[in-house]
Amino acid sequence: MRRITRIATAGIASAALALSVTACGSDSSSGSSSSDDNGGKAAIAYDIGGRGDQSFNDAAYAGLVKAEKELDVKGTEAEPSEGEGDPDKVQRLTSLARADNNPVIGVGFAYAPAVAEVAPKFKDTTFGIVDDTSKTGPNIANLVFNEEQGSYLAGVAAAKVTKSNTVGFIGGVETPLIKKFEAGFVQGVKDTNKNVNVKVQYLTQPPDFGGFSKPDLGKAAAQGQLDAGADVIYAAAGLAGAGAIEATAKAGKWAIGVDSDQYNQKGLAAYKERILTSVTKNVSGAVFNLIKSVQDGKPQQGEIRYGLEDDGVALAKSNPAFTSMTDVITAVDKAKADIIAGTIQVKTAP
Prior knowledge:
There is one protein chain. It is built from eleven helices and 13 strands. The chain is of the alpha/beta class. It has two domains: 2-145 and 284-308, Response regulator (Rossmann fold, 3-Layer(aba) Sandwich); 147-281 and 319-341, 3-Layer(aba) Sandwich (Rossmann fold), CATH 3.40.50.2300. The strands form two sheets. Strands 1-3-2-4-5-6-12 form a seven-stranded parallel beta sheet, with helices on both faces. A six-stranded mixed beta sheet has the order 8-7-9-10-11-13, with helices on both faces. α7 runs parallel beside α8. The longest helix is centred in the middle third of the chain and has 17 residues, at 176-192. The protein is globular.
């Protein structure tokens, strides 16, 4: 797999990278791809935190790896730049498309404006946006999830497990997407036990997206909630969530992970026994499915939504300590069935 490192903000460095990538594909000035290998190359551009976040980006990477193994796709990864707000998204996506990658997938809602700008210039290339429906087009696939549903199940589990009747939610950045996680979690807690107090904290506010990339912020927030009596903490904060898990585990309390099954993440192995469960999003499956659709000549477009009914979101059951809690598992499974049946309507905003 070819990995592109961070694109420097300086124009010369960006141009140099663009040239090196373009040399791999078409030299068409129109921007549309004419390579015979089109569809045999795919690229993902990572969100803040990049690969190694033990969460969201790593899930996307797993989907690309699966496509390489099962579809004989040549994969390329592109890391975010370090400037505020990651200013090089348009350049990054353009470089990947010019190199005949198809599809080109922006991992995270922050890529939506860049995809909307670049996609019309490469009409034969499919662009994917994970976690956003605001930007659409004939060659854009919006890969989205019912995060609130999985978070509701986490709330049920937290309310059943807590002994202090105080639990915590930590959001990386206060955006509508992360507020879906909050809304589902709080509703799940309150529907299970209205007497449980839910402490909510966001690490940063837009346009500062550092709350997704700084573990120390997550650690400090979790410590504050622990000091206030929380004994279960759910963090939807990307790489910063690893810091929350560390603090919670060291305190001997329960952490709830997000996006990937964080019990099984190697980078969190030291804390896995205190990772009760994780709200998983099948980002890897969504990435793989989009790549396969292009390979099959029937590229996905428009909104592709994943929820509990198709295991697009779920509550992980990897920790034996969790699965041994019969009453908790029973409550979670009942809530899942009720959400799928429509008996429970989960809110998407607090």
